[in-house]
Amino acid sequence: MAYADSLEPSRQLAEEAALLIRAATPEKPFVIGLATGSSPVPFYRELIRLHREEGLSFRHVVSFNLDEYHGLRRDHPESYHRFMHDQLFDHVDMVPGNIHIPDGTIRTEDVYEFCQEYERKIDAFGGIDLQILGIGRTGHIGFNEPGSALDSPTRMIALDRLTRRDAAADFLGESNVPRFAITMGVGTIMKARRVVLLAWGENKAEILAAAVEGQVTDTISASFLQLHGDATFIVDETAASCLTRNRCPWLVGPVHWSSGMMRKAVVWLARKIGKPVLKLVDEDYNENGMADVLAEHGGAYDVNIGVFNQLQHTITGWPGGKPGADDSHRPERALPLRKRVVVFSPEPQDAVVAMGGTLERLVEQGHEVTLICQTSGNLRVADMEARKFATILEDIASGSQPWPEQQSYARTIQGLLDEKGEFGVDPSPVRHLKGLILRGEARDAAEACGLAEGAIRFLDLPFYESGRYRRFHLRAEDIEATATVLAELRPHQIFATGDVAEPTSLQALCFRALREAWAREGNGEWAGHCRVWVYRGKERPLADHEIDMAVPLSPIQLERKLNAIRKFQSIRQDEWEAATLNQKNAANYDSLGMAEYEAIESFQRWPSAAPK
Ligand code: F6R
């Protein structure tokens, strides 16, 4: 089932669970299998609301969590033990003895026995009534990484590289992510009477399609759920976007051949059979389930030209509009000549990584560009960077003419770093310092993209300052701060990201702040003339047919962009990853029969004037 967002389906699922919870008794408790991660968070929030506002009691609920990192203390901020208490258990009336979470502190030699006992306990409670799952980008459920067998039991597993990379931000670096975890097996999950898998946002789209529509295989453990008698996948529209019915709707039934649908279908066809658009022939259409488009629009020749032109019109070296040019087929309007452009970057590096070349062009072409770093990004900065700064400061401050205040500041930072240890939560002076370090780098990066000193602003949205990844809550002050900046800058053009991101992610919350700020400020005269362009992160770049503006970069421009990205030293931004993505865009366009560029940055036009 696909929904517009994660809230309504999470509410409905909580209602379903609440019915079962209310029916539970001491003799026949309700046994629920729980997952951590972002996906179940809206479900947990709704359960908490039902407890607080509607008196739903959890006294007869028994829970079994899917998994836990091995080697983490229970109070480690990223342990699943801690996560479950923060996100659910501390806010409802669960009986502590009814909560079961694999113990990550257990010695390796005792793990086997522990896992057997975990299985025995589940059986002793009569098995799991409802198992909640998320899905990882490797297709894992629990931590059943590729290779997990259908009948695998609870056990210790080595985490996949991709899983560890996805957790890198939470652990402030991939090297800090544990290598092993204890997880319920696929077999354990399959024994649950009912299974519900939740998936939200663009990052899940491809793996979800493979799990639901692909072969049942142990390389994607979620695909085993196809064999379960009562498994439901509850997903939002963006997570569902790669399912055949959305990716190629013409293959599953009649479609309205709008120009957007034609572009999507023809690009798909060209890719599938490896031909440029203008070389497609009638047989290609007929043999690939697209005969009706020919019937409606004449032969392949006309369809090809139409789509070729659409693609051609997305390409522009003038992202802010080309002065004096006929703009009827250009992505941006020519007027006003000098636009006020606001580029929103959720963390300081995001915009430079995704659109550093476009930023440079906008500035070069005379637009008034403001780069807004929505959050400080301080959670990404490693301790080592803060320590380095504090040590240098201490050395300077302890010179022949000591600066006592600076000395004491440096020592405080060092002391706080020692105290919190490698995985501890950063106290606010440390976060503040890390934010300042990133600010300096962001200024350098902005300058490398040609922006003047005053053209970069730091909103430091409060939701970020008081949160951690996956645990952020947007607040009124965040929307207020965003609205104030919109009202002041009255942009003609906005660049932003996060529109289809996983809803609790930092990018999604930054976009929500923008959307809600727009709703407040959007009746200003400027809003009627403002165009919004979205860019995407590396997890799910825009597909070729989704690109409404393609800004080519020459080799020299790409090199300058990489140079700008390299300024983000404290967060070890991988500039080659960005280059590869941009080069891949260019290669894709080339293979469709467009001009051959070195690299392309891509944008999608927000469907209506207002971001909704
Ligand atoms: C968590 C778990 C994992 C996650 C999956 C998706 O207990 O078992 O399988 O469900 O990695 O994580 P999120 O929801 O954070 O995208």
Supply the key terms.
alpha/beta; 612 residues; 17 strands; binds fructose -6-phosphate; 3 domains; globular
Structurally, the number of domains stands at: 3
CATH topology of the largest domain: Rossmann fold
Separation of the first and last Cα atoms: 22 Å
User: In CATH terms, what is the architecture of the largest domain?
Assistant: 3-Layer(aba) Sandwich
Question: What structural category arises from helix and sheet content?
Answer: alpha/beta
Radius of gyration: 26 Å
How is this structure best described in words?
It is built from 21 helices and 17 strands. The protein has 612 residues and is of the alpha/beta class. It has three domains: 243 residues, Rossmann fold (3-Layer(aba) Sandwich), CATH 3.40.50.1360; 61 residues, no CATH class; 220 residues, 3-Layer(aba) Sandwich (Rossmann fold), CATH 3.40.50. Strands 1-10-9-6-2-3-5 form a seven-stranded parallel β-sheet, with helices on one face. The protein has a seven-stranded mixed β-sheet with strand order 13-12-11-14-15-17-16. It has a three-stranded antiparallel β-sheet with strand order 4-8-7. The longest helix has 21 residues. It is globular and about 75 Å long. Bound molecules: fructose -6-phosphate. The site of fructose -6-phosphate has 14 residues, from loops.
